[in-house]
Automatic annotation (TrEMBL):
Name of the molecule in the record: site-specific DNA-methyltransferase (adenine-specific)
Chain ranges of the DNA methylase adenine-specific domain: 155-461
PROSITE patterns in the record: N6_MTASE
EC code: 2.1.1.72
Catalysis performed (reactions): a 2'-deoxyadenosine in DNA + S-adenosyl-L-methionine = an N(6)-methyl-2'-deoxyadenosine in DNA + S-adenosyl-L-homocysteine + H(+)
Cited InterPro entries: D12N6_MeTrfase_N (IPR022749), DNA_Adenine_Mtase (IPR051537), DNA_methylase_A-5 (IPR003356), DNA_methylase_N6_adenine_CS (IPR002052), SAM-dependent_MTases_sf (IPR029063), T1MK-like_N_sf (IPR038333)
UniProt keyword annotation of Transmembrane helix present: no
Organism for this UniProt entry: Janibacter limosus
Record has S-adenosyl-L-methionine as a keyword: yes
GO molecular function: DNA binding; N-methyltransferase activity; site-specific DNA-methyltransferase (adenine-specific) activity
Keyword terms: Methyltransferase, Restriction system, S-adenosyl-L-methionine, Transferase
Biological processes per GO annotation: DNA restriction-modification system; methylation
Domain N6 adenine-specific DNA methyltransferase N-terminal, chain residue ranges per copy: 19-141
Length: 498
């Protein structure tokens, strides 16, 4: 296989220390601008500029390797063109706001998934320049010009640093409900689902793309031929409702070598269940929003008796629909309320265990999603096909001497080693009960109204040793669930009266 040619760089590879210095100085410049208030303003501004910087390098390299490739951004709108002059101050602001950004928003491609023009137009549909000073913007552009994405070493270095910036972005957004999924959990879920070259992997609530990047790296490591590598590139799909996470995801993909992801900025729940079944995928890895609510128009996409405003239940139905035709598999993060809900949730879980094999429930310990929420979380692993007679539960333990995870002492990937060893490979052979693992007959789950909120029988639930904040959060979640059940009962009574 002939290795691809790369553009000859005019700059030496950027050391990690130098790159960090460039980004630090870039952020210092942005702090001086009156239009940017806090990281939730600064990081998006940095993200779209870095995206254009990286895109320019990626497209130039693709032109070298494919003479027929047509760049999405050409002429004076390319980064390498509009940044090389001495334009600054009001002239730069005028160009960016009245010419560059409108041009990028109005790009039109073929309409096929992954078309770079459509992707760029979609990304910049909701992007605005937030800086007020054209002089500071020129300084910022000059700093970012020092990053040389033509150097492979720079791309890997920038990817590492960018991930830390993404985490800061998600940390800053935590108060608005954007929960950061820890990388160790993302990696473990991906390893257990084990997507392969040639399969299509989807995250319908992709956020900044963490699951899809991990799935891409996992599949690429298993690819041994050029054909398989091409299949891996074509096997990434995702949707994200909000514009800024979508932009951050696209930057994330570029830096990790995913140059043709079939991703869209849209609500994954906006299609009908029938359309979702028709448009299936092989595997889904996702952490859908907790506690969100959807409008009636979205609810109408779901069957009678399965409609609800609660986002997590709609996502679970959507995931099942996407995996039906392809007989696929899934790992999905859910809050505790999903386990014990017996209203709409009970019906969804009944449908799940009718058409799918719910083989493993991973119970996560305190603080995995700290500092965003203390509500206990879980991961459901299931695959299309007959439900087995038993459902396995595995309680992931906290490290010895710890009462919970914190922002400064987060979850680590090596902590999943025992669970991975117990898992039993892709056929899950040889599993046995331990102090952390137990199995429950499906008949018991059915008789309980599909209650999956089952605690470890090998360990007493000693409330005196559980953090008060966690107990309060769990009580609040229980009260919310009771209110939802009462509201659902009220609707059913009204329907019956009609």
């Amino acid at each position: 296989m002939t290795p691809p040619r790369t553009k000859k760089s005019t700059q030496p590879p950027t050391t990690r220390a130098r790159l960090q210095s460039v980004i630090k100085e870039s952020r210092n410049i942005m702090r001086k601008d009156a239009g940017l208030n806090g990281e939730l303003d600064r990081l998006p501004q940095l993200a779209w500029l870095l995206f254009l910087r990286a895109l320019d390098e990626v497209e130039e390299e693709r032109q070298i390797n494919d003479p027929d490739y047509v760049p999405a951004v050409v002429g004076r709108y390319r980064w390498s063109e509009w940044t090389k002059g001495d334009r600054t101050g009001s002239a730069l602001l005028t160009f960016v706001e009245e010419q560059l950004l409108p041009h990028l928003r109005e790009l039109r491609g073929s309409g096929r998934a992954g078309d770079p023009k459509d992707t760029v137009a979609q990304i910049f549909k909701h992007v605005d320049n937030r800086m007020h000073s054209g002089y500071l913007l020129a300084d910022l552009v000059g700093q970012l010009g020092k990053v040389d994405f033509a150097n492979t070493d720079d791309i890997h270095t920038m990817a590492h640093l960018y991930e830390s910036m993404l985490k800061e972005m998600r940390d800053a957004a935590g108060d608005s409900g954007e929960f950061y999924t820890p990388r160790p959990l993302v990696r473990f879920m991906t390893e257990m689902v084990d997507p392969q070259p040639g399969e299509v992997v989807m995250d319908p609530a992709m956020g900044t793309g963490g699951f899809l990047v991990e799935a891409f790296d996992h599949m690429r490591a298993a690819a041994t031929t050029a054909k398989q590598l091409e299949a891996v590139q074509l096997g990434i799909r995702g949707t994200e409702k909000k514009s800024m996470p979508h932009l951050l995801a696209q930057m994330n993909f570029l830096l990790h070598g995913i140059d043709r992801p079939a991703v869209a900025q849209t609500n994954a729940l906006s299609s009908s269940i029938a359309d979702m079944r028709h448009d299936g995928v092989d595997a889904i890895l996702t952490n859908p929003p907790f506690g969100g609510e959807e409008e009636k128009g979205i609810q109408d996409n779901f069957p009678s008796g399965m409609k609800t405003a609660e986002t997590v239940w709609l996502f679970l139905q959507a995931v099942m629909a996407r995996l039906t035709k392809t007989k696929g598999r899934c790992a999905i993060v859910v809050p505790n309320s999903v386990l014990f809900d017996q209203g709409i949730g009970g019906r969804v879980k009944k449908a799940l265990m009718k058409d799918f094999n719910l083989h493993t429930v991973l119970r996560l310990p305190n603080g995995v999603f700290a500092p965003y929420t203390l509500i206990p979380s879980n991961v459901l692993f299931f695959e299309h096909g007959p439900q087995q007679e038993q459902v396995w539960f595995y309680e992931h333990p906290l490290p010895e001497g710890r009462k919970n995870y914190t922002k400064t002492k987060p979850l680590a990937h090596d902590e999943f080693a025992d669970c991975a060893a117990w898992w039993g490979g892709q056929d899950r052979e040889g599993r046995r009960e331990t102090t952390q693992a137990w199995q429950v007959p499906v008949t018991d789950i059915v008789e309980s109204g599909y209650n999956l909120d089952l605690r470890n029988p090998h360990r007493p639930d000693d409330l005196s040793h559980r953090p008060p904040a966690e107990l309060i959060a769990e009580l609040i979640e229980t009260e919310r669930e009771m209110l939802t059940l009462l509201e659902q009962l009220e609707l059913e009574i009204k329907d019956f009266a009609k």
